[in-house]
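Quick start: what a row looks like.
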Amino acid sequence: MPKNVADPENLTLTLEILLADETGYGFNGSSFEPLSKSAGQSAEFNISVAAGNADYKWYKISSDMSVTPLENGEKYQIDGSKLVVNNLTKEDSGYYFAVADNKNWANFSRVSDSVSLDVDGGLLTLGDADKNGIVNVTDALLILQYSVKMLSFDQSAQLSADVNFDGEITVTDALLVLQFAVGKIKKFFKPSVSKNFGAILKRFLSGPFLF
């Protein structure tokens, strides 16, 4: 024990570790399958870590990619790792995730992957720049034209066009949409909270944004 410790018998050590990766490390057994619901129904999420004594905080990523902490009440019923969203409306569409804090001899926080909730088609379709419900070569061309300032997009088109979630609409997005349209790729970005935690946190601190 160092000599300059004033009260050795009361010495405490706090170790905080953030564990997160693109699969939502530690959330084994949890379901991240997309949910599709109708207005008036309820949606239930259950995302848990194996470690005991964990406290959970729930968040929602809205269609504009703003992040909102959820509070227990009439709308959101939170019971640890379980979240129930009641009396659904289209505005409840988005991506939901949990942060688990374990208060044990070593403190840690783990960020889950996100689960999408689509209420009556409230989620935007990535890549669908012309908003006709279909992602095709026309969308790729429109995004390419936007990237070189040949045309403008409204807010929802901008939200749909940034398919790689880098905050910009570029030729890369147009190429990804083209590859999707012709079957070269099967999926675009799905908001993986843990993989993109730094980017999401930065935008959360700066408020809602367009992407």
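That is the whole record. The mean pLDDT is 77. The CA atoms of residues 31 and 184 lie 27 Å apart.
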